[in-house]
Amino acid sequence: MSSSLEDRLLEATVKLIEAAAVWLPSDVEEALRRAYEVEDNPVTRSFLKAMIDNVEIARAKRLPICQDTGVVMFYVRVGDRFPYIGLLPSILRRATVEATRRIPLRPNTIDVFTGRNPGDNTGRYMPWVEWEIVEGVDYAEVTVLLKGGGSEVVARARNLTPAEGLKGVMKYVIEAVYEAGPQPCPPVIVSVGIGANVAMAMKLAAKGLTRPVGARHEDPEVAKFEETLLQAINSIGYGAHGMGGRVTALDVHVDYAPRHPATLSVAVAMNCWAARRATMRIYADGGVEYTTHPHLNKEVV
Amino acid sequence: MAEYKLRTPLSEDEIRELNVGDVVYLTGVAVTMRDAGHKRAVELLSKGERLPVDVRGLALYHAGPVVRRVGDRWEVVVIGPTTSTRMEVYEYDIIEKTGVRMVIGKGGMGSRTAEACKRFGAVYTVYPGGAAALQAEQVKRVLDVHWLDLGVPDAMWVLEVENLGPLTVVIDSKGRNLYEEMYRMARRRIDEEIYPALGIR
């Protein structure tokens, strides 16, 4: 394991974080542009215009899209035959520190007990990393999510009774969006997890925020549930930043695990319109491919 | 809906002319305060002390910027509004005791702030949250900074702004709150249209 490989992967990860911070994924940007076409309220349109202009300025000047650059969360799907797994934990941590200095990111990690902000977006368990092992694969897929605070304040989870059923789940989600109002910077991405306990449900809901806008669940039944919810949410009428309009959510993602006979747990997580995420693959030969930001593949890594 | 270009110091008369839904572009001085700044400000004011900056007639901005130190100056890299609802508990006192005329944020504020806006002649406006790179172009200069001991996001940044906007008036000085009206409309749609269509309840 040469140190140059480690340095290269570190640099590639800093670049991944920068891509997430400054370059909105194309699926999200296209959804914003569609919202601009669909709305007719002039104030709502002026807000969407400002947001789209902002996306372009951020990209051109390599500036963070939003001043709340969030907390750094990694979702890593690592193949059981991926050779560099031992390098990843320290690379993810060092890349967070370096990206904070270089981009720069706002230092957002405050120790709960001491109140201290280390200034580099690290801390106990930070950056947050969710690991998943994929069988029969020799590469790793690293997704970074820069998760803002405003859209986090409205996340929630609860145990419904099984009698409440999927209708109860729908109601819980619609009420979450209603109460959130303009606070999470709509149009939002709504992600719903259902399972045997709230820990499972929230884990699935949080993970759903890494899914692209427009990507439906592979199970047609669940996909239909997502579409029904999206239509219902967009009938509420908030529009961009609560200025009134047809697009309150860019998309709804749902995932589930089985419930326990006694439980029906549901969790709702949301992302703001500035849904910042980036994904790269690290191959067994050390090569890196950016899948959400393919333009980066042309630049020397 | 009307569009205004305003300049600080803002007079009570020009603020009282604004209605919810109006769009404002602001030039002049905006001072940032968020959670920790509001808490400290209210503590000082309750003891009869002054804030480091006289914000009478200025805009109070709920924001925590990303900044960079360039030589002996600070430079705003990007800046944008934070969710204002957290500042609701402080804002009545701030508006009453400082004479600030415009509060800028996002996400909405409640009835106490609306009461203060009506009584003392102020408005609450929102800027599209997340549009931080665009807004950085509207912030010309950091004039001063106080309370850096609270950390960069929570410090009091004194900013020179030019055509800061679009700022939409969400609470005017006549007792109207655009977001409260929006919530009421949403409730009605959910109960009368969305739930019946889904067979809920």
Report on this structure.
The complex is a heterodimer of chains A (301) and B (201). The relative contact order of chain A is 0.20. Chain A has two domains: 3-23 and 65-148 and 276-298, 2-Layer Sandwich (60s Ribosomal Protein L30, Chain: A), CATH 3.30.1330; 156-271, no CATH class. Chain A is of the alpha+beta class. Helix content of chain A is 37%, strand content 21%. In chain A, helix 1 (3-22) packs across helix 4 (88-102) and helix 2 runs antiparallel to helix 3. The mean pLDDT of chain A is 96. Chain A contains seven helices and nine strands, in the order H-H-H-E-H-E-E-E-H-E-H-H-E-E-E-E. Chain B has a single domain, classed as Fe-S hydro-lyase, tartrate dehydratase beta-type, catalytic domain (fumarase), CATH 3.20.130.10. Chain B contains six helices and nine strands. In chain B, the strands form two sheets. A five-stranded mixed β-barrel of chain B has the order 2-3-6-7-9. In chain B, strands 4-5 form a two-stranded antiparallel ribbon. In chain B, helix 2 crosses helix 3 (88-98) and helix 3 runs parallel beside helix 4. The longest helix of chain B has 21 residues, at 178-198. The model of chain B has no long low-confidence stretch (mean pLDDT 95).
Biggest pleated sheet of chain A: 5 strands, mixed
The CATH class of the largest domain in chain A turns out to be: Alpha Beta
Number of structurally distinct domains of chain A: 2
Q: Biggest sheet of chain B, in brief?
A: 5 strands, mixed, barrel
How much of the residues of chain B is beta strand, in percent? 25-35%
Helix content of chain A: 25-40%
Give the CATH class of chain B. Alpha Beta
Morphology call of chain A: globular
Q: In percent, how much strand structure appears in the residues of chain A?
A: 15-25%
In the CATH hierarchy, the architecture of the largest domain in chain A is: 2-Layer Sandwich
SSE order of chain A in H/E notation?
Answer: HHHEHEEEHEHHEEEE
Total helical elements of chain A = 7
Structural class of chain A: alpha+beta
**Which fold name corresponds to the CATH topology of chain B?**
fumarase
- As for the number of domains of chain B, it is 1
N-end to C-end Cα span of chain A: 18 Å
Unreliable stretches covering 5 or more consecutive residues of chain A? none
Q: Would you give the CATH topology of the largest domain in chain A?
A: 60s Ribosomal Protein L30, Chain: A
Count of DSSP-assigned helices of chain B: 6
Biggest sheet of chain B, strands in spatial order? 2-3-6-7-9
